[in-house]
Design a protein that fits this description.
The protein is an alpha+beta fold. The protein contains six helices and five strands, in the order H-H-H-H-H-E-E-H-E-E-E. The strands form two sheets. The chain has a three-stranded antiparallel β-sheet. The chain is elongated.
Length: 219
């Protein structure tokens, strides 16, 4: 292993193994301490692809030295490399993202109830369903689901993006269940859309805010 004096070729030779490595390195880098062997394998995998990456070269060098003083810098470099290779963490790496999405689902269900619908939606995560791997999605009371891609884990990185993403997906599921627009602007009778307005997740209609998502006006 790096730092032991034993030659280590590093890198991984298939996509599944590389994804597992990225997940492992991400979790360690998030905690601020990356395993030297894993760091070397990540750097080597990038360099083996023919990419002249300065961060990868530095990470490989530091992982071979494997000193306690270099751990912080290794974590920084590892995070930068993960971004560069397009790694997207999931709910297993960022469980609080799912918590935010579930809270957003609760708020959207409040709006469903206020608009007179007797049933809410539930948020599901199903890794083995084609087209939805790793994403969450809203499911209506009759089994209809939301948008094709569902809700990406990173949507849960902050409460506002979580609320907009879940509202959009739930809205799609509900409209499939009802075969009509939902929710509808009480002033114009038009279907509204979830969006961010002045830093707040809102239901938006024809140039004006109907209500913040989760606070649809009562009848």
């Amino acid at each position: 292993m790096p730092g032991s004096g034993t030659p280590h070729h590093g890198g991984v030779d298939d996509c599944a193994a590389f994804d597992r490595l990225c997940k492992k390195v991400y979790a360690a880098a998030r905690a601020g301490a990356v395993d030297c062997t894993d760091a070397f394998d990540l750097a080597a995998s990038v360099l083996q692809n023919g990419t002249a990456d300065r961060d990868a070269a530095e990470l490989a060098s530091l992982s071979l030295e494997c000193t306690p003083a270099s751990r912080t810098r290794m974590a920084e470099l590892a995070r930068a490399l993960l971004v560069a290779v397009g790694f997207e963490p999931g709910f297993s790496e960022e469980p609080e993202w799912l918590v935010r999405l579930e809270e957003a689902m609760r708020l959207v269900n409040h709006d469903l109830a206020v608009t007179g619908l007797p049933h809410g939606c539930r948020l599901r995560v199903q890794d083995d369903e084609p087209g939805r791997t790793g994403n969450a999605y809203a499911e209506a009371w009759d089994g209809h689901t939301g948008t094709a891609q569902g809700v990406f884990p990173a949507s849960g990185a902050d409460p506002v993006s979580a609320l907009v993403a879940v509202a959009e997906d739930a809205q799609d599921a509900v409209m499939h269940a009802l075969w009509s627009a939902w929710p509808v602007c009480p002033t114009h009778g038009l279907g509204v859309h979830a969006r961010v307005h002045e830093g707040v997740a809102v239901w938006w209609c024809a140039g004006h805010v109907v209500a913040p998502i989760g606070r649809w006006p009562g009848r």
